[in-house]
Amino acid sequence: ALFTNPGDLEDDYAEAIQTHGADLANDSLGSNVELIGYVCSIQGDYGVMSQLVDAVVHGALGVPFRCVWANGNERIGGRCDVEGHGDYYSTSPPATAKNALTVGALNSNDDTLTSFTSFGPTDDGRLAPTLCAPGCQSNGDGGLTSTSANSDTAYSVLCGTSMSAPVVTGIAALILQDCRAQFGGPDPRNATLKALLAHTAAERGNVGPDYQFGYGSVRAKDALDLMRLHRPLEDALAEQGARVRYTLTVAPGD
Fold it and tell me: Where are the beta strands (DSSP E) in the chain?
């Protein structure tokens, strides 16, 4: 259904933005290639759904929008492993979008990788995921405990990038709220949220960005502190080929 009805997702976004005034979306869904049995070559593709997400983030529905996507749980099996690359290239659409903020899953107790979280890169070589957040737990009750979708009062314990994406969405909402309180003006765009969270993520795995952890493990306080210390500057070019120049003064030792 996810691949055959992109209009349904576009309608949902349009209703959220235009009717309900939503500023930010958590998208805890994906193609589940391994689980459902889709053709493995879908993994890593930049398809119609990914293009739709990018257009929505860019402002196709009237205003720039902010989207956080679960990066997928495609390492649950080995059917789609790429020869010579193992679990890499296992991010599936729509998490292969360019403009969205995609989230992998770590264990909340020790910041280690979960066994299921999808790895990048995309087929065209881009980084995936953007970063990681708690999406399971390797001890204790074995997952993230949160309110249940099936009850107004019950709690449930679950694992998945569908759990880690809401963690980052909540942090992004706090950044928007605090930016309004500190500076007023328009909300930061999705690219700015991505930059704030990437710059302040805790290093995990290989030094620098990698295809397992992205930029690392999310750090809410550090992202908020960076936003307060250095108000994000957003600008646009008036036309193709135009230039904007900024001068930055860096003191000795900084």
Answer: 24-27, 66-70, 101-107, 131-136, 144-147, 155-158
